[in-house]
Inverse folding.
């Protein structure tokens, strides 16, 4: 997937690496509220501002709701805007999420994915962002810290594209990626500026050209506003691919655009997933390949827009598909597996698909778990016994 | 109407809508009584009373007939009359 | 006012105090002003897409976040060293209740923003429900009088005191019936290097129910009875009050509004009228409104 130049690598905390990437994007305004496990990102950013390394307006606000609302005003003034949050904070932003996308503001936000309460739980899963899949924001899920760094820079390029003008969440697993120390190639500031030009807003709040932002739309136009957002998301698929390709040309690293794959071409069992669990799955695949098992992986990098064609293409050769995801749609399976099955329904693909809610509230997903899932998938080729299940459910305490 | 134009709206554009159609009573000004205090202009919720050639005149395209002007006029120079339409 | 910064053609009710209030504020602030507004009557009546009454740059985001949105606007103006006024104009629901968290944050961070609340004392846009600003005994659709109710059971929230508790350097109350006073206060507020708050009495014909023509008279009566003292505070100190030359009984104000008519119909509401008079008398004493 990525080719890393080890000579320039430094061992840093994931949150620092992302904060450094944000610094290289030179946001005008940063507005955030403390919440675990996101806080280190904005702590690092405020230190950069305090040291004079980063010339940004940093607002310490009264809630996540305010944090994102501040960026509505800043963005309307033509600011490159940044925030970062997780879990309950993202939920508190919910109303503003719709507003930012509806007003077509290219805000970029890192989401340090974390479980939603109740019960209160600060550990990683992806319920927070997957639960906000319909709000109009693009969602990119990353597998490691390096990708989090690189995707953050790419996100501004995609978001600020004049044909897109949509906000983006760069989703990185909380603690697993935010708090890990690993070797990372930090972005070169000049190369970052070369990749990401200054933001050129169309219209801003300006007394010389006094436009009205955020008017009220009745049934005669509301549908068309929604359609435009929908259309922009579909158009963004090509931009996501392009942003990844242009990034590779300058920085030499590539993670796929919409999707990526690992030994998927000849695989019989293909695992589909998002986020940091991919590292474990790759190790499991390496081991199983040595044993002669034809197992592969398709990584969903862009969850919104949902890359229907790219997934049909990447999965057309599979005999059985197992979706592993860290979220659940209570009462109806889970986000990724539902979307994937829906992508296949009107295609010729009739491959069995089974889904697993795994790693909820921070529970480890081990190589042994992956093997278990692969065994279940192989069994499903002969007939699906369970379409969707909770992995490792501790039935003894139920 | 082009909603592609940045989803934004041009300034002062409610002028396109003639709210005078809402009116039942119309203000009639007795300019001889007027002392040009301009209270009618200041208080008018529509902002549609202006001096034209030195006389205060309501713009009937927008006047909703609320009668605030008539009520506040210190010289009772404005009367509200049922409008024949 | 031919060069008014609020165009006609807006959809506010005939006899609404809100557009007059906006025009007076914009008159004083001038065209070099950016206005931020929360959701409410103001927003729906002045910006029905694809039209807008605003002749200055204007932005609406949500019901409860105008202060945060304005904070983002203000930091960008400072960043660009641009000397433009930032004025929030919102109703009492967003100001007193749902936007309180954002308002508190904006006041506390000390942004140079003028917050103008046009206070019509209930949630009018949704159909006249009680807000934290609704005065004692007023009828709303969620505080209806009945055999066990005499209207709103609680007094009005003291929002200027909340602003003062944040050390907001300029705080004032005003009335749509006193245009010279209101414009002067807006100009004074915009001179302050920090947040400012002006709360304007702005009758709502739909919620208060009165003859449309009496809108200004009603707001004047609120002042003349002592129920709406016109005051201003500079750096936390009471800096001025408008004296009442001929104080009037509160019943003069109450009896011409539908929202208080139950107080005059029911025989057992004498206590309530006395309590409202006591509120006015307490204001007169506290602010020394009558010489």
């Amino acid at each position: 997937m990525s080719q890393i130049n080890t000579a320039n690598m430094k061992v840093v905390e994931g949150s620092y690496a992302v904060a450094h990437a944000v610094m290289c994007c030179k946001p005008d305004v940063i507005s955030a509220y403390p919440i675990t496990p996101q806080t280190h990102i904005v702590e690092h950013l405020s230190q950069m501002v305090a040291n004079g390394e980063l010339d940004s307006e940093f607002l310490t606000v009264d809630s996540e709701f305010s944090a994102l609302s501040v960026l509505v005003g800043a963005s309307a003034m033509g600011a490159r805007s940044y925030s970062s949050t997780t879990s309950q904070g993202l939920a508190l932003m919910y109303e503003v999420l719709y507003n930012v996308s509806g007003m077509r503001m290219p805000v970029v936000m890192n989401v340090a994915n974390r479980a939603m309460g109740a019960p209160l739980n600060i550990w990683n899963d992806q319920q927070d962002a997957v639960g906000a899949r319909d709000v109009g924001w693009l969602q990119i899920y990353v597998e490691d810290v390096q990708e989090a760094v690189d995707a953050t820079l790419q996100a501004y390029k995609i978001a600020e594209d004049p044909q897109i003008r949509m906000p983006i969440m760069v989703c990185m697993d909380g603690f697993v990626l935010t708090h890990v120390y690993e070797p990372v190639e930090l972005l070169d500031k000049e190369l970052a500026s070369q990749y990401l030009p200054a933001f050129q807003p169309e219209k801003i709040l300006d007394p010389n050209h006094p436009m009205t932002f955020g008017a009220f739309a009745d049934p005669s136009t509301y549908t068309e506003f929604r359609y435009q957002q929908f259309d922009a998301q579909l158009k963004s698929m090509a931009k996501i691919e392009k942003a990844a390709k242009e990034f590779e040309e300058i920085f030499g690293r590539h993670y796929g655009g919409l999707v990526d794959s690992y030994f998927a071409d000849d695989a019989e069992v293909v695992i589909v997933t998002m986020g940091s669990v991919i590292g474990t799955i790759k190790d499991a695949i390496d081991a199983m390949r040595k044993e002669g098992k034809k197992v592969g992986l398709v990584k969903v990098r862009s969850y919104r827009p949902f890359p229907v064609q790219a997934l049909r293409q990447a999965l057309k050769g599979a005999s059985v598909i197992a979706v592993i995801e860290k979220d659940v749609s209570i009462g109806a399976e889970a986000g990724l597996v539902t979307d994937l099955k829906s992508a296949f329904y009107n295609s010729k693909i009739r491959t069995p698909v089974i889904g697993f809610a795994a790693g909820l509230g921070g529970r480890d997903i081990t190589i042994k778990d992956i093997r278990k899932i692969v065994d279940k998938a192989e069994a499903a080729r002969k007939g699906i016994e369970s379409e969707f299940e909770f992995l490792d459910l501790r039935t003894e305490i139920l | 109407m082009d909603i592609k134009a940045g989803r934004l709206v041009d300034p002062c554009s409610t002028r396109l809508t003639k709210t005078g159609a809402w009116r039942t009573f119309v203000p009639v000004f007795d300019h001889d009584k007027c002392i040009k205090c301009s209270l009618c202009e200041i208080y008018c919720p529509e902002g549609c009373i202006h001096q034209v050639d030195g006389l205060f005149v309501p713009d009937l395209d927008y006047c909703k007939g609320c009668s605030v002007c008539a009520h506040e006029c210190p010289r009772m120079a404005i009367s509200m009359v049922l409008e024949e339409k | 006012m031919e060069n008014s910064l609020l165009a006609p053609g807006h959809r506010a009710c005939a006899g609404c105090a809100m557009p007059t209030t906006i025009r007076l504020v914009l008159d004083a602030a001038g065209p070099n002003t950016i206005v931020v507004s929360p959701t409410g009557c103001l927003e729906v009546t002045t910006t029905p897409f694809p039209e807008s009454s605003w002749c200055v740059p204007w932005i609406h985001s949500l019901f409860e976040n105008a202060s945060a949105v304005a904070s983002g606007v203000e930091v960008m103006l400072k960043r660009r060293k641009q000397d433009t006024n930032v004025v929030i104009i919102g109703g009492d629901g967003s100001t007193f209740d749902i936007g309180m968290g954002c308002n508190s944050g904006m006041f506390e961070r000390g942004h140079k923003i003028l917050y103008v609340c046009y206070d019509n004392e209930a949630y009018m846009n949704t159909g006249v429900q009680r807000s934290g600003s609704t005065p004692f005994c007023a009828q709303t659709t969620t505080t209806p009088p009945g055999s066990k109710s005499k209207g709103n059971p609680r007094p009005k929230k003291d929002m200027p005191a909340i602003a003062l508790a944040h050390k907001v350097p300029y705080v004032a109350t005003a009335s749509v019936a006193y245009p010279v006073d209101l414009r002067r206060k807006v100009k004074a507020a915009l001179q302050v290097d920090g947040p400012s708050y002006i709360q304007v009495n702005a009758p709502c014909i739909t919620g208060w129910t009165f003859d449309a023509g009496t809108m200004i008279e009603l707001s004047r009566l609120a002042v003349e009875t002592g129920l709406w003292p016109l005051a201003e505070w500079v750096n936390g100190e009471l800096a001025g009050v408008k004296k009442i030359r001929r104080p009037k009984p509160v019943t003069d104000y109450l009896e011409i509004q539908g929202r208080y008519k139950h107080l005059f119909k029911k025989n057992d509401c004498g206590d309530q009228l006395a309590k409202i008079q006591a509120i006015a008398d307490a204001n007169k004493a506290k602010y020394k409104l009558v010489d």
